[in-house]
């Protein structure tokens, strides 16, 4: 898919709050004699595209033919934008383009100084006329709203109506607590905090996440409803809740990750890519971005070269695993479970299972599956975290996540030789037993269980 996308050049229109991000890099080695503050000696200045302009930079880096529309001012920062963006801009005299000056010391942001004008633009009708003139020539539209006054209610509603008339996807990075001006959009990309403000929910945990994401879809007539969940990935609602897991393990700076996500989603939808695959690629793009410092763009080459850790290489989809197993003439051992808090009992159990064959596969219940089986307070750890913990053991060869309550379909597709369960299944029906050559029951180490560990922690915190 990445190879296909890297060869495409969709035309994408970007409108919103174009900003300038400035980075003042400093050396700090002493305290001021005048006050108890650090003395920062400037070493260099680094001016970058920010806000909607950073989405533009990401789309261009991905290979899109990008065109910007907007309202800027007559200040020097507006000149910087005009020099670095292809597009058409209306000039509102006296308006200040948002300018964020980040003071950086030893790769750490210590202060941010903002200059901006956040009043609603006075050129709404002119901007709408420009949009109507250009939009028919594009395959996707992105509205990047930073609540700086460009994307007013009138502007958003008119843009969405026109894009829908032309059957052009319109994607919006929203701001504020009132999403009504975005009604009818293809999708919104609120983060958890933004979604909470719009929904007026106390939290988005457990069932609230599905209830909230469905409410966003219904209340604002969205084609796709999603909420970005930071390190947990992207939640997407399509008849039911799906979580597309995040890829990043190391995070240095989350600045601009949302811009990269919406850029990739727009690029993918412009090329008719399935929404779930689009979210998967968007997560990979975000993983590249958060591993860097500051507002940066990402390319498909960087995404392609994004290396999964050795742990993640063991975490595979069912289809990937079926291809791997077809090429191997080995004895396959399969077991499954939630493995929420991995303990000594699990370790001994899996070690014994591995000794029964050549390749040990662990089927792992997804977060949704765990919640259905054990209640909304579980799992304690996300499916990606649990999968990584299992993959860390040398005796586990592959981990595959399944969303059903039982692994029956997974067993039917993988066709393992040996199915392993705990000795507590003695005399009970083992799901999938009729699909394998034999079933092995392994004794658990006494005194170890996830439930007991959780109960012990709760008692200590009472």
Automatic annotation (TrEMBL):
InterPro entries assigned to the protein according to its UniProt record, in alphabetical order: Bifunc_HldE, Cyt_trans-like, PfkB_dom, RfaE_dom_I, RfaE_dom_II, Ribokinase-like, Rossmann-like_a/b/a_fold
Gene Ontology terms, MF aspect: ATP binding; heptose 7-phosphate kinase activity; heptose-1-phosphate adenylyltransferase activity; phosphotransferase activity, alcohol group as acceptor
Entry keyword Iron: no
Subunit structure: Homodimer.
Family annotation (Pfam families): CTP_transf_like (PF01467), PfkB (PF00294)
Catalyses which reaction(s): D-glycero-beta-D-manno-heptose 7-phosphate + ATP = D-glycero-beta-D-manno-heptose 1,7-bisphosphate + ADP + H(+); D-glycero-beta-D-manno-heptose 1-phosphate + ATP + H(+) = ADP-D-glycero-beta-D-manno-heptose + diphosphate
Cytidylyltransferase: annotated segments: 334-462
EC number: 2.7.1.167, 2.7.7.70
A Gene Ontology biological process term: ADP-L-glycero-beta-D-manno-heptose biosynthetic process
Keyword entries, A-Z: ATP-binding, Carbohydrate metabolism, Kinase, Multifunctional enzyme, Nucleotide-binding, Nucleotidyltransferase, Transferase
Residue ranges annotated for the Cytidyltransferase-like domain, each copy included: 334-455
Taxonomic superkingdom: Bacteria
GO CC terms in record: cytosol
CDD domains hit by this protein: RfaE_like
UniProt-annotated stretches for the region Ribokinase: 1-310
Pathway(s) served: Nucleotide-sugar biosynthesis; ADP-L-glycero-beta-D-manno-heptose biosynthesis; ADP-L-glycero-beta-D-manno-heptose from D-glycero-beta-D-manno-heptose 7-phosphate: step 1/4; Nucleotide-sugar biosynthesis; ADP-L-glycero-beta-D-manno-heptose biosynthesis; ADP-L-glycero-beta-D-manno-heptose from D-glycero-beta-D-manno-heptose 7-phosphate: step 3/4
Function: Catalyzes the ADP transfer from ATP to D-glycero-beta-D-manno-heptose 1-phosphate, yielding ADP-D-glycero-beta-D-manno-heptose.
Domain Carbohydrate kinase PfkB: 11-297
Keyword hit for Ribonucleoprotein: no
Protein name: Bifunctional protein HldE
Family matches, as PANTHER family: BIFUNCTIONAL PROTEIN HLDE (PTHR46969:SF1)
Recorded family membership: In the C-terminal section; belongs to the cytidylyltransferase family.
Active site: 259
């Amino acid at each position: 898919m990445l190879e296909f996308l890297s060869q495409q050049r969709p035309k994408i229109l970007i409108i919103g709050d174009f900003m300038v991000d400035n980075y003042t890099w400093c050396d700090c080695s002493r305290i001021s004699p005048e006050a108890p503050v650090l003395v920062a000696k400037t070493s260099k200045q680094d001016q970058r595209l920010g806000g909607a302009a950073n989405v533009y930079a990401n789309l261009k880096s991905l290979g899109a033919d990008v065109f910007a529309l907007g309202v800027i001012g007559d200040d020097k920062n507006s000149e910087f934008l005009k020099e670095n963006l292809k597009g058409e801009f209306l000039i509102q005299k006296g308006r200040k383009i948002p300018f964020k000056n980040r003071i950086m010391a030893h790769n750490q942001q210590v202060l941010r100084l903002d200059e901006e004008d956040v009043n609603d633009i006075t050129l709404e009708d002119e901007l709408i006329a420009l949009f109507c003139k250009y939009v028919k020539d594009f395959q996707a539209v992105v509205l990047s709203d930073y609540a700086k006054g460009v994307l007013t209610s009138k502007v958003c509603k008119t843009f969405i109506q026109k894009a829908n008339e032309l059957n052009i996807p319109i994607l919006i990075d929203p701001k504020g607590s009132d999403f009504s001006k975005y009604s009818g959009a293809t999708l919104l990309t609120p983060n958890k905090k933004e979604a909470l403000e719009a929904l007026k929910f106390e939290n988005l945990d457990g069932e609230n996440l599905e209830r909230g994401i469905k409410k966003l879809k219904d209340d604002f007539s969205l084609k796709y409803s999603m909420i970005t969940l930071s390190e947990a990935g992207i939640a997407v609602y399509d008849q039911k809740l799906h979580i597309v897991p995040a890829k990043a393990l190391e995070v240095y700076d989350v600045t601009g990750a949302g811009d990269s996500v919406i850029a990739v989603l727009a690029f993918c939808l412009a090329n008719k890519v399935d929404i779930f695959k689009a979210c998967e690629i968007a997560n990979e793009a975000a993983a590249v971005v958060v591993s860097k410092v500051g507002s940066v763009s990402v390319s498909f080459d960087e995404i392609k070269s994004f290396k999964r850790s050795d742990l993640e290489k063991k975490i595979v989809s069912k289809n990937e695993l079926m291809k791997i197993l077809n090429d191997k003439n080995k004895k396959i051992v399969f077991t499954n479970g939630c493995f929420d808090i991995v303990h000594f009992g699990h370790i001994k159990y899996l070690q014994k299972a591995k000794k029964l064959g050549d390749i040990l596969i662990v089927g792992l219940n997804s977060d949704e599956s765990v919640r259905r089986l054990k209640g909304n307070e579980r799992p304690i750890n996300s499916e990606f975290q649990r999968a990584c913990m299992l993959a860390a053991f040398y005796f586990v060869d592959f981990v595959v996540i399944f969303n059903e309550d039982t692994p029956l379909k997974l067993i039917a597709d993988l066709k393992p030789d040996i199915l392993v369960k705990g000795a507590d299944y003695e005399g009970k029906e083992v799901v999938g037993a009729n699909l394998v050559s034999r079933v092995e029951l392994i004794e658990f180490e006494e005194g170890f269980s996830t439930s007991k560990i959780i109960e012990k922690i709760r008692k200590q915190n009472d």
